[in-house]
Amino acid sequence: MKRVAKHIAIILALILLLLIGALQWLKWYTHNGEKLVLPDYIDKPYVQAVDDAKERSFEIIITDSVFLVGKSGGLIINQNPRPGSEVKRKRKIYVTVTKTQADMISVANLPRLYGESYELKQQQLAKGYELESEIIDYIYDSGQPDMIMEVKYRGKVIVDRQGRKDDFEIPKGGKLQFVLSKSSGGEFTMPDLVCKNYDQAKFLIENSLMTLGEVSTDGTVTDLNTAVVYRQDPPYSSGIQLIQGDTINLYLTKDLPPGCDTDNSDQ
Length: 267
Known about the structure:
Blueprint: H1 2-32, E1 35-37, H2 46-55, E2 59-66, E3 76-80, E4 86-88, E5 92-98, E6 104-106, H3 118-129, E7 132-140, E8 148-153, E9 156-160, E10 163-164, E11 169-171, E12 175-182, E13 187-189, H4 198-207, E14 211-217, E15 228-233, E16 241-243, E17 247-253, H5 262-265
Parallel strand pairs: 2-5, 7-12, 14-17
Antiparallel strand pairs: 1-4, 3-5, 6-11, 8-9, 8-12, 9-10, 13-16, 15-17
């Protein structure tokens, strides 16, 4: 009888152990199969997100890094699975983070700039290269206005009439400085018109993009084609600069004034 009771006790103990084991396994299985809602780590610092993920039994893995103008480094900008997804514990979360160091752009990779329209190139540089632009000066040019004459970065010329420095590098987000053309305000050296005949003087004035003003004669002139300049206003002086559009008045006479070189008057 005692032996039977002993066997029954052993059987009951085994059953109890099996029940305890089953309950523990069920608890473990249920716990591991539990679905958790994935937090939103976008725009969060990577280091902060890693600590939070560990507390939730997740693992964050960086798959890519990019530089974004205006964003500090070490920020998560993309994650997979997406925020709000239901996932199991120990799920790996793949993220893209921002870089602290800007990507460098070689001048050789920029589009043609010299002689091109500033408006068009400014838009192209902003959209395609994430480069800012500012106009720092204008210089006279006989062509169309607002064309690019020089490009600088931090005061250093990188593009001009002589060519461009293809090996120079600019950080993404950097600001290029532009010198543009303008169609007025150019400075010209005062031409010496005395002793020139009327046609020569008129040609020199127009070629310098200045304006022919009053043409006065001394009463001896019967034909402008043979008239000679004996005075100009403003008067000629070596080194004097005129601005495009300035007016020069001419005073004509029939014969060469005293002191004029005959050969020089025919040039």
